[in-house]
Give the backbone structure.
Amino acid sequence: MADYQCMKCNYRFTKERKPLACPFCGKTGTVDFVPDANDILADVGEQEKRMQDIEERKKEWDNRRK
Ligand SMILES: [Zn+2]
């Protein structure tokens, strides 16, 4: 199951597959996938990891300059 949202009327719903038309307003081509909270949290975790990598690399460079 995944979350989808209609970009036309902002109606949000959960469905197995992305529907062609919005079940609320009936418009086609306006429904977009909405990543759920867990996906967003995973992304944030990845970003933090990358930031830490960059910080560590910076420290390494500073040490080499000394
Ligand atoms: Zn709609």
The pocket of zinc ion is lined by residues 6, 8-9, 11, 22, 24-25, 27, 30 (CB under 6 Å). The first strand starts at residue 2 and ends at 6. The helical segments are 37-65.
